[in-house]
Amino acid sequence: MDRLHRLQHTLHSDIPLTKAIGLRVETSDPHSLTLFAPLGPNRNHKDTAFAGSINAVVTLAGWSLIWCTLDQEQLAGKIVIQDSTIQYLRPITTDFRAYCRAATSEDMKRFLSQLRRKRRARLELHVEIWEKEILAVRFGGRYVVELTQ
Predict the structure, then answer these.
(1) For residues 63 and 86, what is the distance between their CA atoms, to the nearest angstrom?
(2) What are 58-112's pLDDT values in tens digits?
(3) What pTM, to 2 d.p., does this model score?
(4) Which residues pair with 105 in a beta bridge?
(5) H helices within 15-50, ranges in order?
(6) Of 12, 13, 25, 128, which sits most exposed with the smallest number of CB within 10 A?
(7) In 3D, which of 55, 35, 59 has the Cα closest to residue 44?
(8) Cα separation of 89 and 147, whole Å?
């Protein structure tokens, strides 16, 4: 099973909410990750995306990028969000995608080095959701990873 399928399976088995909201891993490479969420199960009373669902999806995009990094490095760890900020810049009226870009290569090297040395490290990531080429959501989150192996 390839990395994307393993991640999809992990999300649905370890974080049941992801199945309920229809979350799907769309793309992943060393520099970014994209999650897809359908509007239907994430809709609010105004027929736009529910802010709680949006927050879950962007938080999970960062979590998923770290999961892929750990998998690539053959490391196992617990990933949690420590703190975050989110800006809802415009309503989302369609299915949506959360795009997470990796930290700079320097930050990533520092993160992995500290993780291997101290078995615990923090990493800040940024996620965006665009609708019709207009930025709809901007998110920044600090994640903590603790090695388990």
Answers:
(1) 15
(2) 999 999 999 999 999 999 999 999 999 999 999 999 999 999 999 999 999 999 9
(3) 0.96
(4) none
(5) 17-20
(6) 13
(7) 55
(8) 36
